[in-house]
Design goal:
The chain is built from one helix and 27 strands. It is an all-beta fold. The strands form nine sheets. It has a four-stranded mixed β-sheet, with no helix packed on it. The protein has a four-stranded mixed β-sheet with strand order 11-18-17-14.
Length: 285
């Protein structure tokens, strides 16, 4: 007689696979099996197997439930003479997600000096982000710092301030296994800084009104401005918010009087700037 002894199945689902991007097809090339009557694959997720090229080494297509990882089980049934208990082995696919990036707005206004970007972006599934200045203005470009932060700092160049805007682009660096790179470009309009000049000193005769005129008093990029003084007289209210104020001296007022021009920055710049104008009334002859 001939006695045939069948070996029990030997199965290996293969090594775990790392850094597979979502929506990817994975060939289970390292799986092996022997001494079996039939084999099947199953998944802890909801992906599908394509056995068209191989039963032992099918292609697995990740499903919508396969988010961070999925465990695949290779099951082998013994030959008929053996106890019909399946022999199992498992492997795990570790999954990374494609990056997402969005901006709450793509246009903002900032003061034309060093500023910190507000947190405008929402990013997920990226190993990092990178900001770059893509304005292309002539001369030396402005400087970004903390370029991997959602809120980098930026110092615009003189030419960029003169142009009135910069273009700052943020770009994602995808997780391992993924290749999608997304970007958003933010247009930053630059509000010039406040400039104030009270003008050159003036001399006038005792008892005469002083009208500030032609001495170079100017304001640039101011939302409001006003004059004040340290004398005993007063400033005509109708001129106190003009560049040509009229100072009405006090009775017998002589000596130096300081007129102060104070201007308030235009938003989003902040702060006030003051400049002094010296006036010198001379006694009458």
């Amino acid at each position: 007689m001939i006695l045939t002894i069948y070996a029990n199945p030997i199965v290996s689902a293969g090594s775990d696979i790392f850094d597979i991007c979502e929506d990817t097809d994975v060939i289970l090339s390292s799986a092996t099996a022997s001494n079996y009557s039939s084999i099947t694959w199953s998944t802890s997720g909801n992906g599908t197997f394509d056995y068209s090229s191989s039963t032992i080494n099918p292609t697995y297509s990740l499903g919508s439930d396969d988010v961070t990882s999925v465990t695949l089980t290779l099951s082998a049934m013994p030959n008929v003479a053996c106890s019909q208990v399946a022999v199992l082995d498992e492997m795990t696919i570790f999954i990374n997600q494609d990056t997402t990036l969005s901006a709450t707005t793509n246009t903002i206004t900032m003061c034309g000096a060093t500023f910190t970007m507000p947190d405008l972006i929402d990013v997920s599934n990226a190993t990092s982000i990178l900001w770059t200045n893509i304005t292309g203005a002539s001369g030396t470009p402005g400087v970004l710092t903390n370029v991997n932060s959602e809120t980098p700092s930026f110092t615009p160049s003189v030419n960029e301030i003169a142009n009135g805007f910069v273009l700052l682009r943020v770009e994602t660096v995808p997780e391992a296994g993924c290749t999608t790179i997304l970007s958003e470009t933010i247009t930053v309009n630059l509000q010039p800084l406040l400039e104030v000049e009270a003008g050159s000193s003036l001399a006038f005769c005792e008892g005469n009104d002083v009208i500030v005129l032609g001495n170079g008093a100017t304001t640039l990029n101011a939302s409001t401005f006003t004059w004040s003084h340290d004398g005993t007289g007063s400033i005509d209210p109708s001129t106190i918010n003009t560049l040509n104020p009229k100072y009405i001296p006090g009775t017998s007022e002589t000596g130096d009087i300081i007129l102060t021009l104070t201007a308030t920055s235009t938003s989003p710049c902040t702060g006030d700037v003051s400049c002094l104008l010296y006036t010198s009334p001379s006694p009458r002859d």
